[in-house]
Amino acid sequence: MLFRLRLHGEACLALYRPARRYMVNAAVRVGLIGTSGWAAGFHLPVLQSHDAAVVAAVCGRDRQRAAALADQHGVEQVYTDYQTMFDEAELDAVSVVTPEDLHHPMVMAALRAGLHVLCEKPMAFSAAQSAEMLAAAECAGVKHMVQFTNRGLPHYRYVKSLLDDGYVGQPYYGYFYWPTGWGPSEEVDNYHWASDARRARGAVNELGAHMIDVARWYMGDVVRVSASLRTFVQRADIDGGVMDNANDSACLLLDFASGAHAVLHVGMPNIVGPGLAHTGQTVIISGHDGSLEARCDPWTDVAVSEIVGLRRRAEQAETLAIPDDYFGGTPRGNAFDVFRRQSIGPRLFIDAIVGDLDISPNFADGHQVQRIIEAAVRSGLSGTAQDL
């Protein structure tokens, strides 16, 4: 399908409604698809924090819930069908905040309508879908972005700056670890779409997409994947029956084009909490000139951000404090406040539309992450390494 969408000139333009590329002195009208806690608590208020953006419409399957969300945030229009919203709401852009199995049809419809698209991670259910979405977005000539949240957190941005400045030199080895506390317990062993193999790829997609993107951001392109995927907690189907569970623990070995390699583990059924060093996300990068060890947990009441480094020939490791300008004047205790102040996340999406700027992470990044996830799934089934 990808080759069919790599069209140019009139053949390409005939498929898509032209986007409004320059928004000088005009607000970017955004439609939000999704009414989850993440859509309501992150995407919508962050978009509304930008002076050049107007959230003009909210779309959700449950009209009552969508209307309540719209009323709470002063959004004028409410829809239960995204295509109707695209046809009627006079939008410039859309933010797609739904489960991964719904991303492809929604994004493709938005691109046909000539809309700029911000899509939640993971970008799609399959690499074939993400390839089609990328090709269509390029064909339509719109701005496209994947919401990999770690790219905006001060902690991860500062580690990236240290790596770019040569703190570890040529990277040799990476370690990327994220255990969550999503079971086993009576409260969470019921239905959840991210564990439904009919709708999702499990932990390797839901959690892995974040950590794989960080691994690529820090260490470059991945050329080979080996994986072991396991399911430890049996969750109930949506009707209370037995569900075909996707993996809830994924261990990956990543080989990079640079010759470096990394171990990546994400898991849902972990016991985590205060006092355990492994709670949150842990990243270790070791190279020719030094090592960095970083632990990040922005979801706790008091955000955790610990970065320790050791340079070659240094007598002992040093604690590396994140400079104030990474927080943009926001309190350090809430790492997500920066998304309402700085050009990151959804605000970066709006800035790119207004200024006709390039975006990273975009659909090309999302597609590469999806390829790695799919290679991990194949490796887990076959027991063999998968080349990309």
Question: What can be said about this structure in brief?
Answer:
The chain has 388 residues and is of the alpha/beta class. 31% of the residues lie in helices and 23% in strands.
CATH topology of the largest domain: Dihydrodipicolinate Reductase, domain 2
Q: Compute the gyration radius: what is it? A: 21 Å
State the end-to-end CA separation: 19 Å
Helix/strand order, N-terminal first? HHEHEHEHEHEHEHEHHEEEEEEEHHE
Name the shape in a single word. Answer: globular
Total domains? 2
Percent of residues in beta strands? 15-25%
CATH architecture of the largest domain: 2-Layer Sandwich
How many strand units? 15
Low-pLDDT parts are 1-10
- Largest beta sheet: strand ordering: 14-13-12-11-7-10-9-8-15
Largest sheet: 9 strands, mixed
The multimeric state of the shown protein is single chain
The helix tally amounts to: 12
Q: Helix share of residues?
A: 25-40%
CATH class group of the largest domain: Alpha Beta
* Mean of pLDDT: 91
* CATH H-level homologous superfamily name of the largest domain: Dihydrodipicolinate Reductase, domain 2
Derived from helix and strand composition plus strand pairing, the structural class reads alpha/beta
Protein name: Gfo/Idh/MocA family oxidoreductase
Domain GFO/IDH/MocA-like oxidoreductase: 156-293
Domain Gfo/Idh/MocA-like oxidoreductase N-terminal: 28-148
InterPro entries: Gfo/Idh/MocA-like_OxRdtase_N, Gfo/Idh/MocA_oxidrdct_glycsds, GFO_IDH_MocA-like_dom, NAD(P)-bd_dom_sf
